[in-house]
Amino acid sequence: MTAAERAFPDGFVWGTATAAHQVEGGNWNNDWWAWEHNPGSGCAEPATADRFARFCARAAGHLGDAMQRACTLNEPNVVATAGYLDGRFPPGERHGDRRRRANEVFVDAHAKATTAIKEAAGAPVGLTLAMSDDQAVDGGEAALAGHRGGWEDPYLEAARGDDFIGVQTYTRHRFGPEGMLDPEPAVPWLGQVARANALTWRPADA
Fold it and tell me: What are the angstrom distances between the C-alpha of 103 and each of 36, 75, 118, 158?
């Protein structure tokens, strides 16, 4: 790969973020803590989108010109899949239809929040997805397509008219005919392969 092929396009913006609930202790005064300690779901309920849009309108109205860029949702594909398909996040469900409904609610929430933010503050608006350098091996094309169909495709379609899209990528995933394969021998990190080359992947490659 040449230096030109590794170069990022004009207008590409690097960013960094952290979440207090993930890295600090005792953060009980937040909605995630409450969600963890109460049964039931929320992201698969259509009313959630309207409530989220009202929150965004109020926040953007207060921030005004101080809001230079707005990301409506961070990794909604992770929340929908881990909460409603894999059972690893609250509400701990394992139903494909519920994951589909959560995806639909997140897409609706993003659209309504985008309108609310632009009306209140006029800032550029987008969303952020967790996306990997996914590759089909040994006839895994259908399995990869199926994975993308629930993991990222609904959000990429929803983001077509956005001002930007944020991508958080960490590793590569390989797919065979039966689905996702175990990682190749390498440096393990959170059960994944620490693969810096994943940074050279672009959504346009999909």
Answer: 20, 11, 23, 11
Q: How many CB atoms lie within 10 A of CB 44?
A: 22
Q: Kindly report the pTM of this predicted structure.
A: 0.81
List, for residues 97-121, the tens digit of each pLDDT value.
999 999 999 999 999 999 999 999 9
Q: Where are the domains of the chain?
A: 42-205
Give dist(CA 104, CA 62) in Å, integer. 28
- Distance from C-alpha of 167 to C-alpha of 130, rounded to nearest angstrom: 6
Residue type, 136: A
- In the CATH hierarchy, which top-level class contains the domain 42-205? alpha beta
* Residue 159, C-beta contacts closer than 8 angstroms, at least 6 positions apart: 110, 126, 127, 165
